[in-house]
Amino acid sequence: MLVVMEGSATKEQIEAVVKSIEDMGLRAHPMPGAQRTAIGITGNKQMVKDAMLSAQPGVLEIIHVTQPFKLVSREFHPEDSHIKVGDVVFGGAFVPVMAGPCSVESEDQCMVVAERVKAAGASMFRGGAFKPRTSPYDFQGLGEDGLKILKKVREKYDLPIVTEAVDPETLTLIESYADMIQIGARNMQNYSLLRRAGKSSLPVLLKRGMSATLTELLMAAEYILAEGNPNVVLCERGIRSFADHTRNTLDLSAIPYVHRTSHLPIVSDPSHGTGRRDKVDALSRASVAVGADGLIIEVHNEPEKALSDGAQSLIPDQFDNLMNTVKSIAGVINRRM
Ligand code: PEP
Ligand code: MN
Fold this sequence. Notes:
Elements: E1 2-5, H1 11-23, E2 27-32, E3 37-42, H2 51-54, E4 59-63, E5 83-85, E6 88-90, E7 97-100, H3 107-120, E8 124-126, H4 144-157, E9 161-164, H5 168-175, E10 180-183, H6 191-198, E11 204-207, H7 214-226, E12 232-236, H8 254-261, E13 266-268, H9 270-274, H10 277-289, E14 295-298, H11 316-332
Parallel strand pairs: 7-8, 7-14, 8-9, 9-10, 10-11, 11-12, 12-13
Antiparallel strand pairs: 1-3, 1-4, 2-3, 5-6
Helix pairs in contact: 3-4, 3-11, 6-7, 10-11
The structure holds phosphoenolpyruvate and manganese (II) ion (MN).
Manganese (II) ion binds at residues 102, 272, 298, 308-309.
């Protein structure tokens, strides 16, 4: 970290900042320049609390040389993390696909979809039992009954389950039914929920908030790791932009950025990332091509009757095609599907 002093800063002001740094148990390295003095700080194992430094007279700005996150950073953990969900591994050469409906609507619906996605090669089943909806009048999910259906899917088709927790109470319930906890875009900065997920023994699928920067996404993951749960898979699911030909703009550049900055795997969600069924196939191929460590795809047997996200849900035949085409893309970059 670097404290940049104003050009007009006095010798006393510079000395006062140096003393504050030393009082924190750190080393200060004043570097006088032609225009102004900068003071380098070393010896910090964690983020330096910069608020008291930036408030001192004569300080122009504080520059963070290293990233504000630690446990999730590549610097801290140079090797790729491999996150296991049952026998499924995220972050290795194999690229797992999670597929299923947006919402768990009925046992029949889930069984029909599970049979097809399993046959097509999906590694995990997705489906929301607790749905964070924009309107309070929209379908909110079947709750615990939905979790019971998901458990039956797991037993019948041997597919690990990922499902969304919307608060600490639902997270506790999900722990006794599912294999992976999803934290949705709307809750990416729900810090009490993140802390609770950090105390769980289940892996977490953390989706990027629709207006979150990648630093904010990684800071959210840091909350989970800081509580002791290292098993986090990140998810790019599209961000808000001015575009109106899609529901969200899938930010594919997030994937190589996260790979450079963090050791955590990152999967792509072209369903929410586009919001349009006809674009899911192409964006799935693109996601695999840029190195996504997995895909999460919404599939529904009767999308026109879906209680949520029907417009972006593939029918099982379309999912079959998707699986076939993404496989060849994976091969080009030495990965397998
Ligand atoms: C979902 O996966 O169905 C969902 C609600 O996703 P997001 O949080 O990305 O909107
Ligand atoms: Mn959805």
